[in-house]
Amino acid sequence: MAEIQQQADSGKGGKKRAKKMSTKIDMTPMVDLAFLLLTFFMLTTTFSKPTVMEVAMPVKPKPGEEQPPIKASNALTLLLGENNKLYYYDGLLDGTTKPELKLSNYGADGIRKVLLQHKSNPQLVVLIKPDDKSAYKNMVDILDEMNITETKKYALVDISKPDQELIKTSGL
Amino acid sequence: MPKVKPHRTSPSLDMTPMVDLAFLLVTFFMLTTKFAPEEAVVVDTPSSTSEIRLPESHVITIAVDKDKRVFFGVDDDAIKSDLLTQVGAKYGVSFTPSQIQAFKGVASSFGTPIEKLPALLSLDSEQRKLVKQEGIPADSVNNQFIEWVQTAQALSRKSAYGKPSYVAIKGDGNADVPTVKRVIKLMQDKNINRFNLITDLETKPVAGN
C-alpha cells in the first residue's frame, strides 16, 4: 500500500505544485522481515555457545619422583555412588582406622554445607572418588561445588576397593 | 462554528531510524553468528555454574554419549583433510578426493572406526544422518581415538595457529564415569592435561551465609 501523502490543502492559488508525490514507501514488510531475522540471529547466537568448566589434571609424575602424601587430618574424601548418592568421610581410608561414612546429597543443603564447614582448614584437600556406577553428571556437579565453595585443592581419584566396601557395609 | 476537522495527517510514522537500527543489528548478528555444527550424536550436557565460554575456534570436541560411545570432532577447517589422510595412512586406509571433501562436513563430530569411514563418507549427507555410528574405538587394544587426538594436535601446532587445540569433553549427563575417565586417562598418557568440560549454564548460587 504505497501511500501518497494527502494533499495538505487543495491547491491554493494557481501556483503549480508539481512534485507533491511523496517518496515515502511503506516499510512495514521490510521492518517485519528485519526483525524476524534479528530475532532469529539473536537467539541462535546466544544458544550456540556452550560454557565450559576448565579442568587441569595433574601432570604424570616422572618415574622415581615421590609425591608428598596428604595428611589424613587435611583430607576430605567424597565418594560418588550410584543413583546420585553422595557419601563423604573425613580423613583417609587406611588399614588401621575405619572412618565414619556419612550420606549427603548434591543439593544446596548437602555437600556444600560440608565443604563450607571444612573450609576453615586452609590446607584442606578434597579427594573426589567417582564410583564406576555414578553418572558423569555427578562428577560435573561435584566439580561445580568445588567452584561454588571456592575450594582450591581437590583431586579426582579412582575409587578403591576398600572405599567400595565401605559404602556397601555402611548400608547408607 | 465550523466543524472541528479531524487531522488529515496519516497515522504512518517515520520508521527509517528503526529500520536503520534493525538492519544494523541484523548485519551484526549475521556476521558474528557461527552456526552450531551438525552433531552426529545427541548429548545432553549437565549444567554447571561456570561462566567460561568455549573458545570460538581451534577446539577438539570429544563427545561421550550415554551408550558409552566416543565421538571425535575438530572444527579447524585447515587441518581436516590432512588429519584424515594421516590417520588413514596409519591404519592403511586411503580416501578418494571426494571422500576427503565429504569429511569436511563430517569432521565436526563423528564416531566411526577408521575402517568404516570410507563407506560413511561415500554416502550423501541425508543417508549419513540415518547411519547409527558405533563410536570410535578407545581402549588399549584398539586405540584409534588417541590417534585422532594426537594427529589433530600435531597438525594444529604446525598450522598457522601454532598451538595445540583446546580439548573439550562433552559428556552426556547420564554417561558413565569410567568411559569419561578412560578418555581422560588416554589423553593424560599422552601428556594432554588440560580439559574443558562442556556444560550448560546455571545461575551461581551464593555459597554460605
The whole-angstrom Rg of chain A is 33 Å
State mean pLDDT of chain B (0 to 100 scale). Answer: 81
Helix fraction of chain A by DSSP (H/I, runs of at least 4)? 25-40%
Query: Uncertain segments of chain A of ≥5 residues (pLDDT<50)?
Result: none
Order of helices and strands of chain B: HEEEEHHHHHEHE
- Provide the low-confidence segments of chain B as ranges: none
Shape of chain A: elongated
Summarize the main sheet of chain A.
Answer: 5 strands, mixed
Helix run count of chain B: 7
The count of helical stretches of chain A stands at 4
Distance between the termini of chain A: 75 Å
What can you see in these coordinates?
Chain A: Its main location: membrane. Chain A: It is found in: Cell membrane. Chain A: It is a single-pass membrane protein; Single-pass type II membrane protein. The complex is a heterodimer of chains A (172) and B (209). With 172 residues, chain A is α/β, with parallel strands linked by helices. Chain A has four helices and six strands. Chain A has a five-stranded mixed beta sheet, with helices on one face. In chain A, helix 3 links the parallel strand 5 (125-130) and strand 6. Chain A starts with 27 loop residues before the first helix and ends with a helix. In chain A, 23% of the residues are buried. Chain B has seven helices and six strands. Chain B is elongated and about 100 Å long. The mean pLDDT of chain B is 81. Chain B is α/β, with parallel strands linked by helices and 209 residues long. The longest helix of chain B has 17 residues, at 16-32. In chain B, helix 2 crosses helix 3 (97-106) and helix 2 packs across helix 6 (144-158). Classes of the chains: A alpha/beta (172), B alpha/beta (209).
